[in-house]
Amino acid sequence: MAGEYNIIADQGSDFSKQITITEDGVLVPNTGFSARGEIRTDKTPTGTVVETFTCAFDADGVVVFSLTHVQTAAVAAGVYWYDIEIYADDASSVVRYLEGKFTLNQEITRA
Question: Domain limits of the chain?
């Protein structure tokens, strides 16, 4: 079962979070695996994708998922849903590690 973590981000700002995935206190190896994540209007299969995270493993094996300020500026302020999955590059497995609400606060200052 995926862990639940609700996120609040700011429209028009860069956004980045990290997930350290461990099993019994040991970092899970990431060789042969990739990460992905989407933000959708709702949790149903027909929920519209409003943005896709850039996801990568850093040098320490931590998953970093992020959006640029251009991406967050393009999404209307509001409450959405997201999840982050880790999947085998050979498509043999997919595990959803994190999910929750993604709240995007309205930007005030505009350049």
Answer: 3-105
